[in-house]
Amino acid sequence: MKKLGLTLGLCLLASVSFGQKKAVSEALKLAKDANPNFTEARTKIKEALSNEETKNDAKTWYTAGQIEDLQFTVENTKLLIGGQPDQATMYNALINIYPYFEKASELDNLPDAKGKIKPKFIKDIQSTLKANLPYYMNGGIYFFEEKDYKKSYDFFNQYIEIADSKLIKSGEKSTETVDSSYIFSNFYAAIAATQLDDHATSVKALQRASKIDYRRDYTFQLLSEEYKNAEDTVNWENTLKEGMALFPKDSYFIMSLVGIYVNSENNDKAVEYINTAIKNDPNNAQLYDLKGRIYESGLKDYVKAEEFFKKALELDGENAEILSNLGRIYFNQGVVQLDNANNIADVKIYNEEKEKAKDLFKKALPFFEKAYQINPDASDNKIALRSIYYNLDMGDKFEEMDKIMNGDN
Question: Is the same domain home to 191 and 285?
Fold first, then answer.
């Protein structure tokens, strides 16, 4: 009786095992049918993927990938013949293929009982992945336009993973088409990642994209902003330095670095970086303007500030901001001079000192007037001009500007 019981147990076990393997075949049949039932096919294959008898079988995972590929193909065929596919269904099936095939490949490359490796599915897996590869980029674009940035990132990222994987790589050099798609996918994977509010994913994607020779300046900018927003000051500063070294004529990096040093009151360091930038781009008016502002606000050296604002104007004489900055040097000195004069009791000395203040206001006037002509909306220019007109006893001009500022004109 004991022997019979054991035999029956073995038969039962074999029956269960055979039943699960049969379910794998049935799942594929459902997907291949003239009227495929992908929902039922997925249900059956998922049961097999979790069953002890079939979950470690390469065929189970390969079949799961086939089912997804079949649904993708059904929808994609509609697109190819000018029909209207269900794009969400099509791309959701596509994104599921690779994880199944990756696991199938892993199991397919395990040695058999005799220690030999005899893969059965690798060639078909490679063929399918190569054929489908361009559509991963299309999926990334589709979900990006739908503003589903998580799925967009997943598609672009999976394109890169597949392109880099041993499953499709060969000793042959990549074609130009694959190279351009690979570059595109790296860049847009990073762009999509920045929309996810996921610092680790964004940094990883941006670091990867920054190694690709496509819009690297912009990628470095985004990476530095990512570190800045995460308050990672060390990596923020280091990324800006690297960006400045790679793109010395891109003002973003130098301006950001100088901003860090100015805000931390490290003005000498700020000037050091400005000088480096000027050596690389000696005709950049903005660099001299920025240097002037550092000397004005940080180092309180107004003579030097005036020198560098003048140099900036030599290079860009129609820049309203630079005009205003130079005018401000004279205007502020005039205000200080006038305050000093107002504290003098002696009328003669008072008048002499007041004239000195007026001279400074006169020097400031043409710069503010030209700045105002170029940019009449800038409130600082209007405020300065009204004050200058008042102190120079230019009544008509004062009243005119006062009306403009009060909205009466």
Answer: no
Side-chain half-sphere exposure of 319, counting CA atoms within 13 A? 18
What is d(CA 270, CA 262) in angstroms, rounded to the nearest whole number?
6
d(C-alpha 158, C-alpha 122), whole Å:
19
B/e letters for 304-335, b = 16+ CB within 10 Å, e = fewer, are bbbbbbebbbebbeebbbbbbbbbbbbbebbb
Q: What is this structure's pTM?
A: 0.77
Angstrom distances, CA of residue 222 to CA of 213, 235, 258, 313: 15, 13, 18, 31
The identity of residue 172, as a single letter, is E
Label residue 177 exposed, middle or buried (CB < 10 Å: 0-12, 13-18, 19+): exposed
Alpha helices by DSSP H, 176-266? 176-193, 199-209, 216-229, 233-246, 251-263
Residue 5 lies in a domain: no
Q: What is the pLDDT of residues 95-145, one digit of tens each?
A: 999 999 999 999 999 988 788 889 999 999 999 999 999 999 999 999 999
Kindly state the tokens that stand for 253.
């990096």
The encoded tokens of residue 391 equal 């102190």
The count of structural domains within the chain is 4
